[in-house]
């Protein structure tokens, strides 16, 4: 699709040197989507709701524009449920926080890119594990109703930490919470949008097939579910170290998830990935993206962790113009932008 529009554009331009192509048209990525997470609005979670500029901040749209100019076309925007729905999960949405979130979302979608709404809550609300599917359904219905007419918004349901107790029950709860979110979103009249579903145990790609197999039972009347998995390349897969296990670890860690997507006829996206700015990680990251691209009929794209205004010298910061990964890793990602 993008290749053919590029050819058409080039043909229309008549000569290769005639007109500079717009950044969107330039994308020759094997993926439908490639972009980054945008952190800030979920920061300072020990103080809720907290104060803008003290505990949390919203992404800087001018920096997002820089990344769009580089070829990124999807941004996963983190926020906290307790800041949006302050009185309870089913409570009305806070107008001021929603306004700031909407400003970022609309900026992204007006630029033709996709904005992923990510309640960065680890399956918890006010510290307690969510158990009420109906409350969660109402939360999503309330959120989706605000974005129902924007088809470049993507709803990102829920991610769970590993929960060692009552593991089997918990896994069923993850399935049911995800289904409730889908039902709430569609009930809000948001019918054109993709929904990214997440699993248990940090939604890891490397453990997806063994832990989250039951998620294949999710249903969507619009048939626009995308299974979102995360993958870091350090020894425990937590994304806390700049050292990658080996130069081949990226491809190795996604292979069982690829097999699962194919076997079940599902689509996936790598919603978070990162590696340190060093040769071993660059090779490992490239190996992983090559593996995903080789199966781009099931893998729709990938999103770096993370950009955002408050990362400082964080090892994975993709924030223009001085973030560690922006200066040191972006060139490695360029073939996929
Ligand atoms: C929204 O952003 C503005 C700055 O643009 C800030 O003054 C305000 O406090 C923010 N409100 C919330 C609730 O985040
Ligand atoms: C590296 C890092 O901090 N990654 C975090 C990103 O957000 C997910 C939740 O979506 C966390 O599980 C990761 O730890």
Automatic annotation (TrEMBL):
Keywords, sorted A to Z: Glycosidase, Hydrolase, Signal
Q: What is its EC number?
A: 3.2.1.4
The yes or no answer to whether the keyword Signal is present is yes
Transmembrane parts of this sequence: none
Q: Which residues form the Glycoside hydrolase family domain?
A: 30-307
What is the main EC category here? hydrolase
Tell me the Pfam families matching this sequence: Cellulase
One molecular function GO term is: cellulase activity
Q: Which GO terms describe its biological process?
A: glucan catabolic process
User: Which reaction is catalysed here?
Assistant: Endohydrolysis of (1->4)-beta-D-glucosidic linkages in cellulose, lichenin and cereal beta-D-glucans
- Signal peptide range in chain numbering: 1-18
Concerning its family, UniProt says: Belongs to the glycosyl hydrolase 5 (cellulase A) family.
What this protein is reported to do is described as:
Has endoglucanase activity on substrates containing beta-1,4 glycosidic bonds, like in carboxymethylcellulose (CMC), hydroxyethylcellulose (HEC) and beta-glucan. Involved in the degradation of complex natural cellulosic substrates.
Name the PANTHER family on file.
ENDO-BETA-1,4-GLUCANASE A, GLYCOSIDE HYDROLASE FAMILY 5 DOMAIN-CONTAINING PROTEIN
What's the name of the protein? cellulase
From which source organism is this entry?
Answer: Penicillium cosmopolitanum
């Amino acid at each position: 699709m993008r290749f053919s529009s590029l050819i058409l554009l080039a043909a229309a331009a008549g000569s290769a040197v005639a007109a500079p192509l717009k950044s969107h048209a330039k994308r020759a990525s094997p993926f439908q989507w490639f972009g980054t997470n945008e952190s800030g609005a979920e920061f300072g979670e020990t103080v809720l709701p907290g104060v803008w500029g003290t505990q949390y901040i919203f992404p800087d749209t001018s920096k997002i524009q820089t990344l769009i100019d580089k070829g990124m076309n999807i941004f996963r925007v983190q926020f906290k449920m307790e800041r949006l729905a302050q009185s309870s999960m089913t409570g009305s949405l806070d107008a001021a926080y929603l306004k700031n979130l909407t400003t970022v979302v609309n900026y992204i979608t007006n630029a033709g890119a996709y904005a992923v709404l990510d309640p960065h809550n680890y399956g918890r609300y006010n510290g307690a594990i969510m158990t009420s599917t109906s409350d969660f359904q109402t939360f999503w219905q309330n959120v989706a109703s605000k974005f129902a007419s924007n088809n470049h918004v993507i709803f990102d349901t829920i991610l769970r930490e590993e929960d060692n107790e009552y593991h089997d029950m918990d896994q069923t709860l993850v399935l049911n919470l995800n289904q409730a979110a889908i039902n709430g979103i569609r009930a809000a009249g948001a019918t054109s949008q993709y929904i990214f579903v997440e699993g248990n145990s940090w939604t890891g790609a490397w453990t997806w097939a063994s832990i989250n197999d039951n998620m294949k039972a999710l249903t969507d009347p619009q048939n626009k579910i995308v299974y979102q998995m995360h993958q870091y390349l350090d020894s425990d897969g937590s994304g806390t170290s700049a050292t990658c296990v080996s130069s081949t670890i990226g491809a190795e860690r996604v292979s069982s998830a690829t097999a699962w997507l194919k076997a079940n006829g599902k689509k996936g996206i790598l919603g978070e990935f990162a590696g340190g700015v060093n040769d071993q990680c660059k090779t490992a990251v490239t190996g992983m993206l090559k593996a995903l691209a080789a199966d781009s009929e099931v893998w729709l794209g990938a999103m770096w962790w993370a950009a955002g205004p408050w990362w400082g010298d964080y090892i994975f910061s993709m924030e223009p113009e001085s973030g560690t990964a922006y200066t040191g890793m972006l060139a490695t990602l360029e073939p996929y932008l």
